[in-house]
Structures are given as structure tokens and as C-alpha cells.
Write a structure and sequence with these properties.
This protein has about 150 residues and is α+β, with helices and mostly antiparallel strands. The chain has 5 helices and 4 strands; from the N terminus they run αααβαββαβ.
Amino acid sequence: MHILDDTDRAILRYLQEDSTLKTRELSERLHLSYTPVYERVRRLEREGVIKKYVALIDREKVGKKLMVFCQIALKEHSLAMGEKFVEAIMAIPEVLECHNISGDYDFQMKILVNDMPEYQQFLMQKLGSLENIGSTHSLFVMGEIKNNSVIEV
């Protein structure tokens, strides 16, 4: 892993603000020539510092008005059952994030659906079909205070 210098950090900050910036635009902002900036961006991608480029979508404008944090406790904590649970969760599109956590629950998921009936259907049909779930606890988001994808570098 290459240690990030000030130029690498500046590239990452600019790309987090606007991932559509072209190399020429980055080089102008950094006051560097095209080739070194191009090579740095490619290295950051190769090394996995830049994982991917995405478009951030306003969830409400596409009908995903209900955000839920769902905590899951597993019945059994064997490696095989844990892997089976993770594999199943990876295939469910409503689950945006899933984190293995400590405490009373084993996992916390961030779920987006249209409304409460769709969440009920999600719980009954998708989560309910997974064999190793012992219990769930749902927390419904009433208002979003801060949602930021920028990592300070």
C-alpha cells in the first residue's frame, strides 16, 4: 500500500465532491500536468483506495420513503450459519448496508422501502425465509439529520 501524500489526498477530496471530474479538470485544479494526475488516479484505483464511482440518488424522488434500521440476532453462531446469513443478505436489494455489530444483536442493516406495507412484506417474505434469524428489532427513521458519503482524508 502506497502512503498517501498531499496530492493524493487532494485528488480524493475533489473526486468525493464530484466523481465525474475528468483528469484534465483535476490537473487544472491541482496545478499539475495531465499525466502525473492520470497515473495517480489509476494507482489509487488499482490499490483499492478508490473502490468505485457512483451516482448518489435522492431516495424520496425514486419512491423509497421509508428507511429502517433492522437489528438481527442469530439463533446459532456457527461459521457455516453466519456465512449462509451473509450470503442471503447480499442478495436482497432492499438492504443497502449490513454491519456485524457487538451487543445484544449480531447485525444491523439499513433498509430502504417505499412504505410500511412494503416493509412488512420484506420482513415476512424475505427476512422471514432465512432460517437462522432468532429475533429482529426495527428502528424507523423519522427524519434524516446528516447523510454524508465524504471521508475526511
